[in-house]
Amino acid sequence: MTSAWKWDETLFAGTSPYYRRGRLPYAAGLADELAGMLELDGRGRLVDVGCGPGTLALSLAHLFGEVVGVDPDEGMIAEATREAAAQGVSGKTRWVRARAEQLPSDLGTFDIATFGQSFHWMDRELVAATTRDMLRPGGALVHITDLSTATPTAAGLQYPGVPGAAVDALVKRYLGPVRRAGQGVLPHGTPGGEAEVYRRAGFFGPEHRVVPAGQALERTVDDVVAGVFSRSFSAPHLFGARRGAFEVDLRRLLREASATGRFSELQPDTEVFVWWKDPR
Fold first, then answer.
1. 58 contacts 85 by C-beta, under 8 angstroms
2. Per-residue pLDDT tens for 3-26?
3. How far is CA 139 from CA 46, 133, 146, 176, in A?
4. pTM for the full predicted model
5. Which 8-state DSSP code applies to residue 149?
6. Closest Cα to residue 171, out of 121, 219, 109, 232?
7. Contact (CB, 8 A) for 270 and 213
8. 278: which residues sit within 8 A by CB, 6+ positions away?
9. What does DSSP assign to residue 162?
10. pLDDT in the model for residue 149
11. What are the residue boundaries of the structural domains of the chain, listed by start?
């Protein structure tokens, strides 16, 4: 993250209605993998930091006695609350609107803290240290992300692949060549090097696993459009009065890429890094 970029509350403004439909799911075996790695028995407490609409937290809710999701976006918290009710787990879930840098002290302590592709948006040094303080002895921080080393392809699948390069080019035609992020820009993208941040905060590890996926997913034009509008760099508000025109052009591009209006995408593998509060 460049020093010039500052977080603001519009980072994911307007994306929450599109998030669950638009984003590709984590590997189906993720919950079972974490249950084994962390010896989860349904009784502990989980805090999911940067929870979005509850995608990760709700997929793990059956492994804990209580789940707390924290996110600064009002729309995300509303979506998580609705989905928890739909899944019948409102009684064991709590959704807190707050930045990770302002984690409320009244949340108590936790057995596990998860970051599902959210850590890079935060003041990482501060949040890592705060999270470690919130973990019980023997607790763990779990960093979860899509495996980015593989290049997905739709070759040999039923439908064409999503024309990602053309979609990106269209976004840049409307929003400019530099990646947008809230009210600012990220010319060099989001930061990496999480391992050193966690080590400096006092964590031990990591224990690393890759949960395989690779299933072929069928996606519609509406799914792909939702995926575009779920991203921080192409959030609906960034287009302003040109949003309607952008969506018309996007849908035209997608129809030209697939006569059936359907696409095949390979679900990415899920990468897991477990960082322990104490030496093991």
1. no
2. 578 999 999 999 999 999 999 999
3. 10, 10, 23, 44
4. 0.94
5. S
6. 232
7. yes
8. 137, 138, 204
9. P
10. 63
11. 16-276
CA-atom Rg of the chain in angstroms: 19
* Chain-centroid distance, C-alpha 27: 13
Is the distance from CB of 56 to CB of 114 less than 8 angstroms?
Answer: yes
pLDDT of 151 over the 60 cut: no
Residue type present at position 175: L
- Starting at the earlier edge strand, list the strands of the sheet with 45-49: 93-97, 66-71, 45-49, 110-116, 135-146, 270-276, 204-211
Crossing angle of the two packed helices 221-229 and 243-257, in degrees rounded to 10 = 140
Half-sphere exposure of 154 (CA within 13 A, CB side): 16
Evaluate whether 225 touches 247 at the Cβ level (below 8 Å). yes
In CATH terms, the superfamily for domain 16-276 is: Vaccinia Virus protein VP39 (3.40.50.150)
